[in-house]
Specification:
By secondary structure, the protein is of the alpha+beta class. It has six helices and eight strands; from the N terminus they run H-H-H-E-E-H-H-E-E-E-E-E-H-E.
Length: about 190
Amino acid sequence: MSRLLVASVHVLRIMQPTHSDRPLSCRTLIGCGIFICALLTLSGCGTFGSKSASSKLVQFKQDTSVGTEDISIAAVGLVGVPYVYGGNTPKGGFDCSGLIVYVYNKAADIKLPRTIQLMSAKGRGIDNQPPAPGDLVFFNTTGEKYSHAGIYVGQGRFVHAPSAGGTVRLEQIDSPYWAARFTEARRLTPP
């Protein structure tokens, strides 16, 4: 932030007239003030968001195994299936919770509720432990802590059914969009 202040002072010096007898106009001073405020605001937003996102995603730098790789393999096998609201089969398409319910049931015989909010109460949070392929990853995409989810498949990637008109996709969890919305990872173990 100190670099921004130095840059702002430098901008003010540049904008001063070369004749030291002439005072700066109100228009120039207001413009400089707005510019400095905008720089400080953007700086604050950038540093705040990146620190909280990176601290939550540190554990995704390494993977571990808990014997649920079949879940992640099944999820990767569905990449490309069309997104369909309310969909819960490969033939009929998937929405985000339908994909998760289908994969966990077929690959691990784990029965899950149909909504993301109810799924968020299952298993246990992994906190700052390394994730394992097959863990659920939750995101806040609508202002609710648990409004979207996917299946972690390892190496910082997850599979999910993101939106209408799209398909089941494999994405990086540390991409700017998903990192900023990451809520938590949860582990469900087979019965």
